[in-house]
Design brief:
Barwin-like endoglucanases, about 120 residues, Asp_de-COase-like_dom_sf, 2 helices, eight-stranded mixed β-sheet, about 10% helix, pyruvate
Length: about 120
């Protein structure tokens, strides 16, 4: 049996930009991507803590060290600059493997920077 489990999470980052007239996606600072073991084009779920919106999109790599969290295209309508979001990715794996898997959890500071 294969099940879907939490792979990675970037917990409570602030939306820094919104680009409605864009093809679509979420741009994420490359430092955060590396820390969360996420990659460009990976499907993610975004949960907005401010308004309860939940949506799926894919990742675009943002400039390293900028703290960028930019909602592009239609998902720009689901959050405002300054909103706090959680970005989650999932993986499919064998049930027995999933029992042992430890997801990667990242808890950035208030400026979307990694805490050292």
């Amino acid at each position: 049996m294969v099940i879907e489990v939490l792979k990675s999470k970037i917990h409570r980052v602030k939306v820094t930009q919104s680009e409605l007239n864009y093809v679509g996606s979420i741009t994420i600072d490359e430092d955060l991507l590396d820390a969360a073991n996420m990659i460009p084009n990976e499907k993610v779920q975004v949960v907005n803590n401010n308004n309860g919106a939940r949506f799926e999109t894919y990742i675009i790599k943002g400039e390293r060290g900028t703290g960028t969290i930019c909602l592009n295209g239609s998902c720009a309508r689901l959050a405002q600059i300054g909103d706090i979001v959680i970005i989650v990715s999932y993986a499919h794996m064998d049930f027995e493997e999933a029992k042992k898997y430890e997801p990667v959890l990242v808890f950035p500071d208030d400026n979307n920077k990694l805490i050292k």
